[in-house]
Amino acid sequence: MATVKFDRVFKVYANGQTAIKDLSLEIADGEFLVFVGPSGCGKSTALRMLAGLEDISAGKILIDDRVVNDQTPQQRNIAMVFQNYALYPHMTVRQNLEFPLRMIKLSKKQIDVLVREAADKLGLVELLDRKPKQLSGGQRQRVAMGRAIVRDPAVFLMDEPLSNLDAKMRSQIRLEITTLQQRMQTTTVYVTHDQVEAMTMGDRVAVMRSGKLQQVSSPQDLYDYPANIFVAGFIGSPAMNIFRTRLSKDESGTFFIDFGEKNLVIESATSQRYQQLERYLGLVILAGFRPEAFTVAAAQTDNSITVEVKTVEALGHEMII
Ligand SMILES: Nc1ncnc2c1ncn2[C@@H]1O[C@H](COP(=O)(O)OP(=O)(O)OP(=O)(O)O)[C@@H](O)[C@H]1O
Ligand SMILES: [Mg+2]
User: Fold this and answer.
1) Is the Cβ–Cβ distance between 246 and 266 less than 8 Å?
2) 238: cis peptide before it, omega within 30°?
3) pLDDT of residue 85
4) CA-to-CA distance for 180 and 184, rounded, in angstroms?
5) I need a surface site. Which of 17, 21, 151, 191 has the fewest CB within 10 A?
6) How far apart are CA 196 and CA 41, in angstroms?
7) How far is the CA of 210 from the centre of ligand 1 (A)?
8) Per DSSP, what are the bridge partners of residue 243?
9) In 126-166, which residue ranges form alpha helices assigned H by DSSP?
C-alpha cells in the first residue's frame, strides 16, 4: 500500500524533447489512476519516471512521502506490466511467476505459496506447466499480471497492457484487472490512449496533452464538467460536436446562441450554473453538444432543428446519425 506524488515534474530527453511539463498530481493509497491522452502526450514517460526507468529532469516523485528520484526500480517496490508481455519464452508459466521471487531470494517454500496464491487469483493453476507460446494472448497477459502481483508490490504500473488483444478479450481482461485491483487495493497507475478504457477503469482519470496535464477528475466529472475544449472533445464517444457561434440574451434574460436558421435557447438551469456567461454576450464563442444530448423531435419546437441525414451507423442498441 502506498501513496504517489508527482511534484512539479519535468522530463526533457537528451535530444531536447520536453515530454513532461510541470506535472503535479497526488494519487491516494489504493486508488486506480489512469493517464489518458493522444499518442506522444507523455503518458509512458510519466509512468517510466515513476517506475525508475527514466531520469527525472526536474521536480520530485514521492512514494509514501519518500522522495524516490534517486532510487533504483527495485528499491521502489513497484511492479510494471507492459503492452508486450515480455514473458521469458523458455520458461514455463510457473517459472515465469517464480522469477521475481527468486530475484529477491525467497525460500523454495515461500515461493511455492506465493506462486500458488497468484495463480489462484488469476485462474492460472491449470496453465502452470505450459510455455508462453502454448497460451492465448489473454492468458499470456494474465501471466504477466501474475508475475507483477506475485511479490505484492506497493504500486502497480501498467502501460497499455490490453492493446495487443482483440476487442472481446480486451473488455474481459479490463474487467479482470479492475476486479483484481479492487480486491487487492494496491495503488495502481494505468496508461492508455483509449478513453473508454480510461473512463471504465479509473477511479480518477488524468487527461494529458503535449506533456501537460489538462484535468484530473472522476470519469463522470470529466464528462460533465470538462475543464477545456481539448478534454471536452477527447472524452466521449462519438466525440462532442464543437462549433463557433455567438451568444446573445433577449429582453426576458434568456440566453441563446445562433444555430443555423434558429436561435437555440440555453436552459436557465445551465445559464445559472455558468454565471460567467454574461461576460461573453455578443462575442463569438465555442459551443459543444454531446451527440447523445440530441433526441429525435416528434414535432417542431423552439429548440428543434431540421437536419439532413448524411450517414447512419447502426450499432444494434443505438444508431449514430
Ligand atoms: N527516449 C526518448 N528520447 C527522445 N524523445 C523521446 C524518448 N521517448 C519518448 N520521447 C518523446 O517524448 C514524447 C512523449 O513520449 P511518450 O512515449 O511518453 O508518449 P505516450 O503518451 O506514451 O505515447 P503513445 O500513446 O504513443 O505510447 C514524444 O514526443 C516522444 O517522441
Ligand atoms: Mg506510450
Assistant:
1) no
2) yes
3) 66
4) 6
5) 17
6) 17
7) 10
8) 287
9) 137-149
The DSSP letter of residue 143 is: H
- Return the ligand number nearest the Cα of 212: 1
Ligand 1 site: residues with CB under 6 angstroms? 13, 15, 17, 19, 37, 39-45, 193
- CA–centroid distance, 288 to ligand 1, in Å, is 31
Q: Name the CATH architecture for the domain at 4-234.
A: 3-Layer(aba) Sandwich (3.40)
Q: List Cα–Cα distances, 205 to 59, 89, 194, in angstroms.
A: 22, 34, 12
pLDDT at residue 34 is higher than 70: yes
* Distance separating alpha carbons of residues 131 and 153, to the nearest angstrom: 25
Instruction: List alpha helices for the chain, DSSP H.
Output: 43-51, 73-76, 93-103, 108-121, 137-149, 167-184, 195-201, 219-224, 229-234, 268-273
Question: Which is the closest atom of ligand 1 to the Cα of 18?
Answer: 12
Query: Can you spell out the DSSP letters for 41-92?
Result: SSHHHHHHHHHTSS--SEEEEEETTEE-TT--HHHHTEEEE-SS----TTS-
Distance 217 CA to ligand 2 centre (A): 21
C-alpha cell at 37: 491522452
The residue whose CA has the least distance to atom 10 of ligand 1 is 19
**Beta-ladder partners of 58:** 10
Answer for the pair 214, 230: CB distance below 8 angstroms, yes or no. yes
Which residues of the chain does CATH 3.40.50.300 include?
4-234
Whole-number pLDDT of residue 12? 98
Q: In this predicted structure, what is the pLDDT of residue 239? A: 93
Mean of pLDDT values over 264-293: 90
Q: How far apart are CA 54 and CA 276, in angstroms?
A: 43
